[in-house]
């Protein structure tokens, strides 16, 4: 008689237990690995921010306690997977620097006063998670709106009307905020320049940069009239504008966005006008301008200023350039 040989092996329950144990161990290893990786990323960003702060402090000691206009002047440059963003406030004699490494951002600052959608002073001697006001946490370069009175929110400073045209802050119409620029024109036979100048500078060191391409965009409202506003870039400090089709509007009774692109030279002036190309037969013909955006490059960026989320004014609130992440 032959006896059946008993089969040995794992039962279903035992196999399930083994699988559960393996899954638990895998989860523990994954969590531990992610934690180590995150600590490494944090450490890299913190170290970069701290290193930049030390170099800026050294620069200040050698330069009458003043901080440099750029990080490069202090020997701080992008590289090895780290990108920097830097803001300096000469009024408060302070700075703020953001370092981004492997998608992680840390910042540090010294007596950096800022005004924007929120206001305050950055005094972070130890690197802190996040970004300085007006910087990005991704390492992407923040956008700067070079327009000095972009929304005409508090006054019409810097605006002017050529050849008996007048400009004034007006609250009856606005594209955003609470006000816009009202332009009133005299009788015009279309051979005389009438309208408004919304930007006029000849400073190629602190306002604009030489040999740089800029794009200006703005919104206009034209009532039913003969007005056909056009963005005109004039002055001896720029090349001929590209004059896209979007620089002129014949649309009436609604806000329309216009834009134009130009490149600066090394000296001279740049004046950005919004002019009327058509004849006006009635004195007091009007139109409105709002949300002026002047940025580097050829892209028509979404409008933003120091009052927008994450943005800061680079000087006096509502009467200076502003910076922040793309919106």
Distance between the termini: 87 Å
CATH superfamily annotation of the largest domain? Galactose-binding domain-like
Summed up, the domain count is 2
**Gyration radius, rounded:** 29 Å
Overall form: elongated
Mind telling me the CATH class of the largest domain? Mainly Beta
Total helical elements: 1
- Return the structural class: alpha+beta
CATH architectural arrangement of the largest domain: Sandwich
Largest sheet: 7 strands, antiparallel
How much β-strand is present in the residues? 25-35%
Helix fraction, binned, reads 10-25%
- Name the helix and strand elements from N-terminus to C-terminus, one letter apiece: HEEEEEEEEEEEEEEE
CATH fold naming of the largest domain:
Jelly Rolls
Mean pLDDT: 87
Strand elements, count:
15
Low-confidence stretches: none
Structure, explained:
With 327 residues, the protein is of the alpha+beta class. The protein has 2 domains: 9-133; 145-303, Galactose-binding domain-like (Jelly Rolls, Sandwich), CATH 2.60.120. 16% of the residues lie in helices and 33% in strands. The chain is built from 1 helix and 15 strands; from the N terminus they run αβββββββββββββββ. The protein has one helix at 12-62, and strands spanning 82-89, 94-101, 104-116, 120-129, 143-145, 166-170, 180-185, 195-201, 213-221, 229-234, 255-263, 270-276, 285-296, 312-313, 322-324. The strands form 3 sheets. Strands 1, 2, 3, 4, 5, 14 and 15 form a 7-stranded antiparallel sheet that branches. The protein is elongated. The mean pLDDT is 87.
């Amino acid at each position: 008689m032959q006896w059946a040989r008993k089969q040995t092996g794992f039962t279903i329950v035992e196999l399930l237990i083994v699988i559960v144990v393996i899954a638990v161990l895998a989860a523990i290893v994954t969590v531990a690995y992610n934690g180590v990786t995150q600590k490494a990323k944090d450490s890299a960003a913190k170290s970069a921010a701290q290193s930049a702060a030390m170099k800026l402090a050294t620069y200040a000691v050698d330069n009458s306690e003043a901080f440099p206009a750029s990080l490069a002047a202090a020997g701080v440059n992008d590289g090895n997977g780290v990108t920097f963003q830097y803001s300096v406030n000469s009024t408060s004699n302070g700075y703020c620097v953001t370092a981004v490494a492997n998608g992680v951002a840390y910042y540090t600052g010294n007596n950096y006063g800022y005004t924007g959608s929120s206001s305050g002073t950055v005094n972070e001697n130890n690197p802190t998670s996040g970004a300085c006001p007006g910087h990005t946490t991704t390492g992407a370069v923040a956008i700067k709106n070079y327009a000095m009175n972009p929304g005409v929110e508090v006054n019409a400073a810097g605006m002017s009307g050529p050849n008996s045209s007048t400009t004034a802050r007006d609250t009856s119409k606005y594209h955003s905020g609470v006000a816009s620029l009202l332009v009133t024109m005299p009788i015009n036979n279309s051979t005389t320049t009438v309208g408004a100048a919304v930007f006029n500078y000849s400073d190629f060191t602190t306002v604009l940069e030489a040999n740089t391409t800029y794009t200006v965009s703005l919104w206009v409202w034209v009532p039913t009239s003969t007005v056909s506003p056009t963005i005109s870039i004039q002055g001896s400090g720029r090349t001929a504008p590209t004059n896209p089709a979007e620089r002129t509007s014949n649309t009436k009774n609604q806000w329309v966005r216009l834009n134009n692109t130009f490149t600066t030279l090394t000296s001279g002036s740049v004046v950005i006008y919004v002019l009327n190309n058509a004849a006006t037969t009635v004195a007091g013909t009007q139109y409105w301008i709002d949300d002026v955006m002047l940025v580097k490059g050829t892209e028509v960026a979404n409008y933003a200023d120091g009052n927008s989320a994450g943005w800061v004014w680079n000087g006096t609130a509502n009467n200076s350039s502003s910076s922040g992440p793309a919106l």
